[in-house]
Amino acid sequence: MAEAMGAGEIQRVGIVANPRVSDGYVDRIVAVLKKNGVEVAEVRNDDQADGEADMDLVFVLGGDGTMLRASRMYPGRVLLGVNLGKVGFMSGMLPEELETGVEKVLGHGLEVQEYRMLDVRVGGEEPSLAANDAVLIKKRPHQLISVDVSISGEELFAFRCDGFIAATPLGSTAYALSAGGPIISGDAGCYVLVPIAPHALVSRPLVLGVDQVACLELAEREALLSLDGAE
Question: pTM for this one?
């Protein structure tokens, strides 16, 4: 769902930069913001965000990986990416239009696209969020894992496979697509569960509603869990 953010709503912002990004890019954004009377609440090139900081917008300098990291650092905040990475699928601004792009946003506002995130829980641990995908993957390269799958408390099936991918609509074009999952519209109210290299004659990805809870239980051998590419 897209919503409009008016120019006057942007009064306090943050900046997240990939550690490999030159400080010059950050300085250029800060200069434009200060010229327009916008307060810079914090600048980060690590994962230690101030969760209490009140910000209207967060500029993200880097590639898609940096955008995913920022989405976990600032859940629910509006993110605007400047593509300084390789792909930049999630970024809305190019480095050569940095100053003009920031001026345009401050002067005319922007359209905000909302994306759903996965709520991932392991045992009794605190929940974690994933914007793209959560990947359960075997720990030993030469061994399959056994996974029991249930949906909203109902046992569905057991799989011997390399692992499973749970992907949001945004993440459906990433690893899940490579594993045979469908491409899902960004505004669809669902997520997809995709087995990785299942040892089965018939296997299909599952498209689940946002209210359906998928439970994956390891029945044999150890596995690793990765959220948006980070363990």
Answer: 0.82
